């Protein structure tokens, strides 16, 4: 096996340090890749900044990162979907920030030569999170996504459609056959419409709740996905956003279910269910293979699913990841912070 380096977090608040790690052979249901690009999610810098205060199970030293794209260098004996040399993207839970990554058989998708590794790396965690929200039986339980969806006759509301989770939730909602409506800043209306949203609303408008309720007047909702920026959530705006979303869902007809990307700490209206999404849960249920084996390879090949938001490449090499955390933490709009390897 090749020698390899990883970006290590040795203690809460410590800067990432680059050091050796062991590369193991893939088990029969795994593949091993040479990583070529990784993307940063808010949870990465949150784990560094808050350590066991927010994530009590965290043990140091540890690796971080979930989003990776690269080249297959070894394939487990049960894996038939790819061969050595193929290009893939994958979800490597808290193990992406390394020169090599092991990917489970149900958590990777081949990508074409036309898609850069940097573009591909923006997809995994936020696709997984959206898929858990939309397709798990104990969340919105929508029909599985398809490149030729049958119209469901229901509207899905995605709050914060230009966020990374939002961009994926819009596309998966469309692939499930929903009419998808979303909130974002007006400068991002064009992007979310390109992803398939039929209607856009400005989440900072004083009339956003009544505007959305007016649109939903004669519609049935499939449920809602609640997302906000992590800093905004820490500052309390996430609760405000979720309060607005919960008010809309409580007054609309249909599935009064809100799947939230951040834990909700307010009062849930009677008759509404509000449930936190654990973006890694699809690793251990049927949704993982539904997304990464059945839907995504076909949807990417046919141009029915695109990598969004677009990558903002801030450096090359594992040593650039710390700087990339700082860029993500300052806040991005419709961008995914990426490091090439
Ligand atoms: N539960 C899980 O498994 C899971 C997985 C992934 C992410 N998350 C969480 O989901 C949240 C979003 O993550 P992300 O990577 O999608 O974020 P992101 O891409 O960094 O979010 C940036 C977006 O947030 C929007 N935003 C800023 N302030 C807002 C507000 N007050 N209300 C609503 N939206 C606001 C902005 O929209 P405009 O530019 O249009 O203004 C911006 O595009 C984070 O808290 C993250 O920790 C959870």
From TrEMBL:
Decide whether keyword Oxidoreductase is in the record.
yes
InterPro entries from the UniProt entry: ADH-like_N, ER, GroES-like_sf, NAD(P)-bd_dom_sf, Trans-enoyl_RdTase-like
* Pfam families named among the record's database cross-references: ADH_N (PF08240)
Keyword Iron (UniProt): no
Q: Where is the Enoyl reductase (ER) domain?
A: 13-339
Q: Which UniProt keywords apply?
A: Oxidoreductase
Record-stated family: Belongs to the zinc-containing alcohol dehydrogenase family.
Protein name as it appears in the record: Enoyl reductase (ER) domain-containing protein
Q: Which organism is it from?
A: Stereocaulon virgatum
Lineage here is: Eukaryota, Fungi, Dikarya, Ascomycota, Pezizomycotina
């Amino acid at each position: 096996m090749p020698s390899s380096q990883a970006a290590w977090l040795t203690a809460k608040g410590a800067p990432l340090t680059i050091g050796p790690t062991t590369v193991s052979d893939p088990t029969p249901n795994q593949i091993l890749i040479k990583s070529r690009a990784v993307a940063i999610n808010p949870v990465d810098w949150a784990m560094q900044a808050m350590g066991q205060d927010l994530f009590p199970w965290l043990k140091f030293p540890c690796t971080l990162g979930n989003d990776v794209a690269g080249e297959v260098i070894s394939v487990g004996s049960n894996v038939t979907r790819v061969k050595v040399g193929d290009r893939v993207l994958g979800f490597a839970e808290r193990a992406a920030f390394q020169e090599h990554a092991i990917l489970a058989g149900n958590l990777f998708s081949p990508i074409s030569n036309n898609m850069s590794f940097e573009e591909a790396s923006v997809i995994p965690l936020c696709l997984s999170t959206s898929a858990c929200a939309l397709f798990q039986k104990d969340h919105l339980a929508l029909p599985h996504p398809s490149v030729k969806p049958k119209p469901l006759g229901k509207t899905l509301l995605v709050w914060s459609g230009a966020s990374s989770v939002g961009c994926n939730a819009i596309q998966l909602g469309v692939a499930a056959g929903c009419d998808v409506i979303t909130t974002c800043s007006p400068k991002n209306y064009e992007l979310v419409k390109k992803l398939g949203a039929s209607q856009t609303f400005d989440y900072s408008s004083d009339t956003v709740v009544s505007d959305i309720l007016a649109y939903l007047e004669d519609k049935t909702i499939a449920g809602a996905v609640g997302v906000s920026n992590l800093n905004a959530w820490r500052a309390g705006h996430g609760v405000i956003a979720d309060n607005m979303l919960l008010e809309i869902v409580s007054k609309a007809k249909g599935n009064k279910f809100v799947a939230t990307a951040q834990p909700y700490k307010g009062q849930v209206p009677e008759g509404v269910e509000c449930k936190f999404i654990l973006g890694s849960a699809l690793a251990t249920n049927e949704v993982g293979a539904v997304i990464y084996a059945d839907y995504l390879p076909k949807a990417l090949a046919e141009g029915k699913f695109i990598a969004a938001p677009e990558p903002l490449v801030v450096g090359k090499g594992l040593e650039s990841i710390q700087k990339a955390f700082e860029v993500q933490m300052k806040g991005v709009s419709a961008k995914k912070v990426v490091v090439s390897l």
